[in-house]
Design brief:
Largest sheet: 2 strands, antiparallel
Structural class: mainly alpha
Order of helices and strands: HHHHHHHHHHHEEHHHHHHHHHHHHH
Number of helices: 24
Number of domains: 3
Distance between the termini: 10 Å
Helix content: 55-70%
Strand content: under 5%
Shape: globular
């Protein structure tokens, strides 16, 4: 599972397919795994009828145009709207976790980005544990996922989830609290110790006071002068009677390069490679940061430039990122085209949490650090066990899914070697390294069916044994190091 040590030195210029470097199924799979949680074979086939440039535009345009998930009836309730708060609040939290799971499976780039930003503008549900604020936080992340980053920063800091998580609700002129001011710079916009001082944080905290008021407990939190600090604040050398929006304006006016570089580096690490070489910093991230600034901090132009680049499509960028638990389970569901319903999505969310990624509960304010942090001796064996449970669940409830996976990928072949190879190549992050790896997988797929039935062509994928054979193969593939990569 080690990422390649070779340096990807392909440029930021757009990828143009050639005979030696074609737009093919492997590249389409690469796009689907990084920009979404995988894709069906039909989606991939459709992608290959287009140019890579057009396919990226399709995904970005779709994300830009997609409306947020509809508001649930309780989405903007205050505490008095609940009839039985403890019961209903828990039910709504569970239902919204499930809805989020559906969104991740279905909404491609828009909600791949939504989940990325939820690990950037981190909150932990257990801190505020209130379903309306949970929904509102998610809605802001969806709304701005591929929009204007400055607007995003402004709106997320005023959300109920963030005001409670980082103590903005407790930040008043009488008792300033610096938590949000510190994380605004360190984690959300500039990066650790990147051209700000403790004095900047102190003055910023004072400017952010006043967001401490609601008409009803659990309702919308709004600003009032009565708890705002009216003193002069000096932030990045700019002195004035600053309030919340002044902070945002000053930040983006005075530190555009720092913001752009920090955010583009984080996007690069998520979508391309967790390792950032000197070449990538200078030749990829710097041009992306320039695009970010010149566009007025719009995310879509930056993402188009990155996703269309030769650098993104380079073979050294493929299969080098360790799957998160959600990648591991959701990509598998999408790529194997497995049936999912409320019970399945609840199960996927539950087992992702078991493997270390509980939805709406990042480990701390810095979020999950990803990549090799996902893999340890315990989590790796846990992954194997979860896929085994999942495969047997599908076998018991939706066995035709397993048969159809083999039929669709193999073109109704009755050659076990070919069937095994196409399934393995479709689901692994990288092809097996050796021929013997394929031979072992072929033997697993053949199972207990006597060899003579394969030799004389009697066996085929319509046999009653076929779904169980596919399930056995999937369980075997999930144990491979290559399966852990995307």
């Amino acid at each position: 599972m080690e990422a390649t040590t070779l340096c990807n030195t392909s440029p930021i210029t757009p990828y143009v397919p050639t005979g030696d470097n074609p737009w093919d199924l492997n590249k389409a799979i690469h796009v689907s795994r990084r920009l979404a949680f995988g894709a069906s074979q039909a989606e991939l086939d459709n992608a290959l009828t287009m140019s890579p440039d057009a396919y990226i535009d399709l995904l970005v345009d779709e994300a830009v145009a997609m409306a947020p998930t509809p508001t649930p009836p309780w989405g903007y309730w205050n505490l008095t709207n609940f009839t039985d708060y403890d019961t209903e609040n828990n039910e709504y939290i569970d239902s919204w976790r499930r809805q989020t799971g559906y969104d991740l499976l279905q909404n491609r780039l828009r909600d791949r980005l939504t989940f990325f930003w939820m690990n950037h503008f981190v909150t932990e549900l257990e801190t505020y544990f209130y379903s309306p604020y949970m929904f509102q936080y998610y809605n802001i992340n969806q709304t701005h996922a591929i929009g204007n980053f400055k607007d995003f920063v402004s709106d997320i800091g005023k959300s109920g989830a963030m005001l409670f998580y980082l103590n903005g609700f407790q930040n008043t002129r009488f008792e300033p609290n610096e938590n949000y001011a510190r994380e605004l710079f360190e984690l959300f916009t500039l990066g650790l110790d990147n051209n700000y001082t403790e004095v900047d944080i102190q003055f910023t905290a004072k400017a952010l006071t006043g967001w401490n008021h609601w008409d009803e407990v659990g309702g919308e939190i709004y600003f009032e002068d009565s708890t705002w600090d009216p003193s002069v604040k000096n932030i990045f050398g700019q002195a004035g009677l600053w309030k919340y929006e002044d902070v945002i304006n000053i930040l983006f006016e005075q530190r555009p390069t720092e913001i752009a570089t920090f955010i583009c580096t984080k996007l690069y690490k998520f979508f391309v490679s967790h390792e950032v070489s000197e070449f990538a910093q200078a030749e990829i991230i710097a041009p992306l940061a320039n695009t970010f600034i010149t566009s007025g901090f719009e995310l879509a132009p930056v993402l188009r430039q990155l996703f269309k680049s030769e650098h993104f499509f380079d073979t050294l960028a493929q299969g080098v990122v360790v799957k998160s638990p959600f990648d591991f389970l959701f990509n598998f569901t999408t790529e194997a085209e497995l049936t999912y319903n409320d019970a399945v999505v609840n199960g996927l969310n539950y087992y992702a949490a078991v493997l270390g990624q509980e939805m709406y509960e990042p480990v701390d304010v810095a979020g999950w650090q990803r990549d090799h942090d996902w893999i340890s001796s315990s989590t790796l064996t846990g992954r194997w066990q979860v896929i085994e449970l999942y495969a047997f669940y599908i076998l018991g409830n939706f066995p035709e899914d397993l048969r159809n996976l083999a039929l669709n990928l193999s073109g109704d072949s009755n050659d076990p070697e070919f069937i095994t190879t196409v399934i393995a190549d479709r689901l692994l992050g990288k092809p097996f390294h050796t021929l013997s790896d394929y031979e072992v997988a072929i033997d697993v797929f053949k199972g207990d069916v006597p060899q003579g039935y394969y030799d004389d062509g009697t066996w085929n994928l319509y046999w009653d044994t076929a779904p169980a054979q596919v399930a056995g193969l999937l369980i075997h593939l999930a144990k491979a190091p290559e399966f852990q990569l995307k």
